[in-house]
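Homework-ish question, so no full write-ups if that breaks the rules, but can someone show me the predicted structure for this set?
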Amino acid sequence: MLKKIGFKLTLGVGIITVLIIGVYAYVNIRSQNEVLLAEVERHANQLSETIKKGTRFDMLANRREHLYNIINTIGEEPSIQEIRVFNKLGEIIYSTREEDIGKMLDKKAESCYACHTADKPLERLSINERTRIYRHHPDSSRVLGIINPIYNESSCWEADCHAHSEEQAVLGVLDITMSLKDADKQIQRSEINIVIFTIIAIIGISLIIGFLVKKWVDNPVEEMVRATQHIASGNLHYNIKSQRDDELGLLAKSFNIMTQKLAEARLQLFQSDKMASLGRLAAGVAHEINNPLTGVLTYSSFLLKRTEGNQEFQEDLKVIVREAKRSREIVKSLLDFARQSVPKKNKADISRIIDNSISVVENQLSINNIQVEKKYDKNLPLIELDSNQLQQVFVNLLVNASDAIGKEGGTIVISTSLIQLSPIGVIHIKKALCPKGHNLMDNEIKIAGKPSIKLKIAMGNSKDMIFLDPVYGENRHHYDFHFKNNDNIQFLCPTCDRSLIKENQKCPKCGSNIYSLDIPSQGNFEGCTNVSCNWQQWEEIDKEGKKDYLEIKVIDTGCGISQENSSKIFDPFFSTKGQKGTGLGLAVTWGIIDNHDGTIKVESEIGKGTVFTIRLPIQQNRVS
Amino acid sequence: MSKKYNILAIDDEQVIIDSIVKLCSAEGWQVDSASDAILGLKKLERKNYDLIICDIMMPDMDGFQFLEETQSKNIRTPVIITTGYSTVENAVKSMNSGAIDYLAKPFSVEELISIVQRGLNYGKIMEASSNLSISMMHFIPCPAKYYRFGYSTWVNVEADGSLKIGVTDLFLRTINNISQIELFNPEEEIIQGNVYARIETNDQLIHSILSPITGKIIRQNQSILSDFNLLQKDPYFKGWMYTIIPSDLEYELNHLTPCSSDRL
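A: Not a homework solution, just the prediction itself:
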């Protein structure tokens, strides 16, 4: 759960949301606070000005009662805590709180220090300097106090009472304290609002992210994981059914293509392995069986000869001889299967080989009412192949097609064409040398049936072997050590320990070192030492571009092959013809095409027909 | 068959030796045996045989090595190679290595008897012809520009690229009078080292003849079917058997012997 992308993403976005909203809320509350305080301050100032101006006349007339009444009436306002008037000595002349009247204030007290800190009283103060915010007790609400000095004017010293002399600048101070309870409440409310908003935003964003991640990431990734498990358990025909066109969709598509290629490669590999071991087995069995069978055949045929005239014996012995001869034929077909080793190649015209094959089975085809349609490409070059073996292939395919069509009649189309395939995944290295000329090929470890390239690996103090895939661009290397991507990895010749690392050149894909192998008469083969990088380059081959292949299709309108059977038809001894077939025809066909470095594949639809596609390289690999 | 022949059978399988001994004894031939090629060579040092039947796959020394040994020791006794690994390649290789004939296992009585009969006759003819000049030989060797496969069949490349093939005079002299010839039909494929014709002789033997070359039959010589004499009198020209289109002449010529080499 904690490691899930969705959770991490939600957590990350949540933290960012909290930060953004937090900063926003802090700035917002602060400015709101300031605006509110300024408003209260302005209000208090205005109020004190109003009182000062409202009582001016009473002061001049020295009507104290009247003055106190005005102050009292205004002081009844609930937001106003106290209104006080001091004289220049700090004595409270009047206060809305009666008990304070007559008290002397220390000039260092709260309401005085604005002017009196520097000992000498200041005479003009800005509004901010006249304001103070404080608490009476730590748990009481905040109060705002504002002092308003009452300045001396000519009317003051000219008044009848002669209370003030002309020299005085400030006659006294009007001090109003107002409660900030309402303002504080408002600030607190907006703080709570912002917190609630933040929580709702985080929950909302998390839910949306969770949902989207589930939909766009989790589900496709789960599907992909399921697919890899299927592949790992051997089901290479599992396909991811994803129609998405985002990156994961692309990954799924590329995954599907990879598994399909893997399945094809496995089939080919599986077939060559099976053929090779079966060939050896067949040869051994044939040899072993033929000896005892000779005993059976010679003795029985000898007895048959000696018992001429004895009807009863003759009948039984004839059965033994007949069946021994039948066994001989079976063993012979086994041997024919086992011995397709090295093709005897010569330049030959594929059209003529196909024509020869057609003429061999002509009788069977005309009996079954089968039309053969030839669609030959007339500009095909001559190609190096074993005509006999290839003829065997086409006769086989034609007989199969004819059997599939049956007596109802139908059509067989044979087409030939020239196609081009990219060298990547097709061309393979047959010989590789170290700079000193030591052979690097290893016949013991084969990859996809081909000898691998054996190199020594040195990483720090540890040494090991790596077996590189000889097929250009396939990268199915064999190694059983942990590969760290580091620059100190060395690729060495296993014979002389000479480094194969190419100086002053780095992999254009990942920047690691690259190794270089000498391929006799085919330039240099280069690859990345970071095995997971897959970068390879074979300039000589790349220069030649795509290679020409001969493609031959044999298409019939027969009964078709079921999906289940089509994966087995190249297996030796697999036959759907019952007693009629040995099950070796297509196995032999496969072996022959494989020996010509070609490929054969089958596509079929039940009831519609079957297509066999053979691809043969036109130009043989120059190094053998 | 009054005269006793000495045949040496070399095989590591007792049942094969037993069969050969039994069948040949019934024909009046005397068979000696060896369970491996080295033992066989030792026996050859002490005794002369008229014919050797040798298996290919044996421990220590195989049939081909045995053939080499006999040739290097200048042993002239004809060798018939037999094997359970009865592939065309083995047949071709045997003939190419100096064996006079090739017998695939498992074989029937008729197959063994006819091949041994031919082998013995071949030995007799060769012995009688040795130290004689070509013109004095007891058989007519094939024309110089022909190729032969073993001693029994020949191939000639015609001007149009097709091939004529047939049997040699020497082969015809190893068999009795022909009573029937069985040929394959045009359009059929014949393969080098596989049977391409059968000749039945008046001693009730059926002789299977191995094809010298691979190809498709385009014509068979009808006239030899009606007139066996034609074959026996002129085996190299009028007595041809098939005209064929070769499928891989260049390669298969390596396994044939130019008849010109017999005339040195």
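Now go work out the reasoning yourself. Hint: Chain A touches chain B at residues 283, 286-299, 301-302, 304-306, 321, 324-325, 327-328, 332, 335-336, 339, 344, 346, 356, 359-360, 362, 386-388, 391 (CB under 8 Å).
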